[in-house]
Design brief:
Length: 470
């Protein structure tokens, strides 16, 4: 049997004999040399064949049992599990795309023109690694108890201070909850406000994932047009006067980039107060306003306590953190804390503590200033490179839009671009109503090649060829 699975031990190796036996048997099971249901030798027989102590073999077998790779049945012996707790050889099976078209691929380096991710080459990885290491040590020494489901107090304090300075908001740490990204915050808000079965104003065009999330939460999204002043509040009242929620990207509208005007802001807040409705402010990219000072948050002028402000660290640090935050009116803080504790507690204390230190030491604001400077340069370079390809519009600081002729297959062009190593996003899926759809491509400016020869111009040429190809 040991010859069949090529189990060879090296007493001088750095790995212990237990590890060598465990890894050798695990490999044989996973690649099919030991088939499901096959019986393993007894501890005594295996120990005799390998020339080791029976306790060594027993320890290796126990590890395999813990991993659900083998089943110990007493006198009946030890057998390879019939239903193995791992994927068959060949890697993880992909059962199909999740939110097809929105993400090129998960857990992979960003592609050229990909939206929604910060620059891979700008983040201070060495500094961040040191902070994470310190955070790991301090987190390991924490008391063995449940952490605050609303988030680490140190991070909530830093977020409140940052929002006061950068977004014009006056809030206490008690109003801040740390969440699992934007999606976690949105789900928590819908549940805490009891919005299931109601209607919600949704920007048209608007973020497709928000539209999907509302539908999954049994909230009916009602498309409300966006013009050069942002969400058309009058159109929303006409379309769905009894809606209980409006979801807006007031600072930089996604994807058109317009800022919600003061008149529209006041009208929206007046509607929410009169109808006892709620406004979720998705603070999309507002901390990355590249020109001039960002407009204050909508929540900064909310006097009736109707706005739930949501932000994340996905665009500024990394979406891999899955770290977001929300600010709720004081009267709702206890209710949101209860729902968070029961259904949506804050993520890892380690990541929270690291981000808190990153902010406390001034590194976060320094990083934001550097990002803005670099992104402005890349934004201008892409605009210049794409002149003549298609009508170009600077949507936000981080996105350039290419307008395509009516009827152009922007979804198909975006799919073919991914095959060519690029990830522009099609504009048409951002519209809910087929009759209002506009064809275009949204190009992220954060990750573009910096090689002056064969870099950005080469990718622009590839994109030009795809657009012109019938």
């Amino acid at each position: 049997m040991t010859a069949d699975i090529d189990l060879q031990l090296d007493p001088a190796a750095r790995r212990s004999l237990v590890e060598q036996i465990h890894l050798g048997l695990r490999s044989a099971i996973r690649d099919g040399r030991l088939r499901p249901g096959a019986r393993l030798p007894s501890w005594r027989d295996m120990a005799a064949q390998l020339g080791v102590a029976r306790g060594t073999v027993r320890a290796a077998y126990e590890r395999l049992v813990d991993e659900q790779l083998v089943v110990a049945s007493g006198a009946a012996g030890t057998h390879v599990a019939k239903r193995l707790a791992f994927v068959a050889p060949g890697g993880v099976r992909d059962d199909g795309p999740v939110l097809d078209g929105m993400f090129p691929s998960f857990s992979a380096p960003p592609l050229v023109f990909q939206m929604g991710v910060p620059a891979q080459d700008v983040f201070p990885f060495k500094t961040w690694a040191r902070i994470l290491a310190r955070g790991a040590r301090s987190t390991a020494a924490l008391p063995v108890s449940y952490p605050d489901p609303r988030g680490e107090p140190t991070l909530r304090h830093e977020i409140a201070a940052y929002l006061s300075m950068a977004r014009g908001m006056t809030c206490m740490p008690s109003q801040v909850l740390v969440t699992n990204g934007y999606a976690g915050a949105l789900g928590l808000a819908i549940r805490a406000l009891g919005l299931e079965g109601t209607g919600a104003w949704m920007e048209e065009p608007g973020f497709p994932i928000t539209r999907t999330a509302l539908g999954l939460a049994r909230v009916t999204p009602v498309p409300v047009p966006v013009d050069d002043q942002g969400l058309d509040v009058a159109a929303g009242i006409a379309a769905a006067p009894d809606a209980r929620l409006a979801v807006v990207t007031a600072g930089q509208q996604a994807p058109l980039g317009v800022t919600l005007s003061l008149a529209r802001r006041l009208a929206l807040l007046d509607w929410a107060q009169r109808r006892q409705a709620w406004v979720i402010e998705d603070d999309y990219l507002s901390e990355l306003q590249l020109k001039g000072r960002a407009a204050p948050a909508l929540a900064a002028i909310d006097r009736a306590g109707r706005v739930i402000h949501i932000g994340t660290f996905s665009k500024t640090i990394s979406p891999a953190l899955r770290l977001g935050f929300m600010v709720v009116p004081p009267a709702l803080a206890a209710r949101f804390g209860e729902v968070a504790a029961a259904l949506a507690p804050a993520p890892s204390a380690l990541i929270q503590r690291a981000v808190a230190e990153f902010m406390r030491e001034g590194l976060y604001l320094r990083h934001l200033r550097r990002m803005k400077r670099i992104y402005a340069q890349r934004h201008d370079a892409i605009k210049a490179c794409l002149q003549g390809v298609a009508p170009v519009e600077a949507v936000t600081g981080l996105v350039v839009m290419l307008h395509l002729p009516d009827g152009a297959a922007d979804v198909d062009i975006a799919a073919r671009a991914r095959e060519a190593g690029m990830a522009p996003m099609a504009l048409s899926p951002w519209y809910a109503r087929p009759g209002s759809r506009t064809a275009g491509l949204l190009l992220g400016v954060t990750n573009v090649p910096q090689d002056p020869e064969g870099g950005l111009p080469e990718y622009c040429a590839r994109l030009r060829a795809l657009i012109r190809r019938p």
